[in-house]
Amino acid sequence: MIPPLALTLGEAAGIGPDITLSAWQQRAASALPPFYVLADADLLARRARLLGFTGKWAIHPDQIASCNEAFAPSTEELERAERLLAALREAEARGEGAAAFNGTMIDEASRKMAEALVARGAR
Questions:
Q1: Are residues 61 and 35 in the same domain?
Q2: CB 101 within 8 A of CB 84
Q3: Poorest-pLDDT segment among 11-15, 91-95, 105-109
Q4: Domain range for residue 42?
Q5: Which residues contact 3 (CB under 8 A, 6 or more apart)?
Q6: pTM score, two decimals?
Q7: Would you call 53 helix, strand, or coil by DSSP?
Q8: pLDDT over threshold 80, residue 23
Q9: Which of 30, 40, 69, 102 has the fewest CB atoms nearer than 10 Å to its CB?
Q10: Is the domain of 67 the same as that of 13?
């Protein structure tokens, strides 16, 4: 099932994190509205991702590549997610519900985030 999409109205400054948190609580994807400054296509997507959004509207074809690049998981992020999932599988095989991974505790919530990242990378 494709999750619903939560959108902000207006500029993200000050309201972006609240909208993002609300979207996460509702298990919705979240995206910022159009960015009308065409001269800086890279800024629009970087800003949205830094605020925690999972997508960005584009109003011009020149913005599409920047959005795709900003929201696609990097090779490093994908490799880390795969290692995290492997560590959880090993923990489960030992009958444990959580594990240590790179000095942090990981559990079912970590699994869900890693699986979502891997799924985004598969698109």
A1: yes
A2: yes
A3: 11-15
A4: 5-71
A5: 27, 28, 29
A6: 0.61
A7: coil
A8: no
A9: 102
A10: yes
What would the pLDDT profile of 59-88 be if each residue is shown by its tens digit? 778 878 888 888 888 899 999 999 999 999
Say if residue 95 is in the same domain as residue 56. Answer: no
Q: What is the pLDDT of residue 8?
A: 43
Residues 88 and 100 in one domain: yes
Catalytic residues: 107
How much is the pLDDT for 99?
95
b/e burial code for range 42-79 (CB count within 10 A of at least 16 → b): eebbbbbbebebbbbbbeeeebeebbeebbebeeeebe
Cβ atoms < 10 Å from Cβ of 21: 12
CB burial class (10 A; 0-12, 13-18, 19+) of residue 38? exposed
Strand locations in the chain, DSSP E? 5-7, 29-32, 55-56, 99-101, 104-106
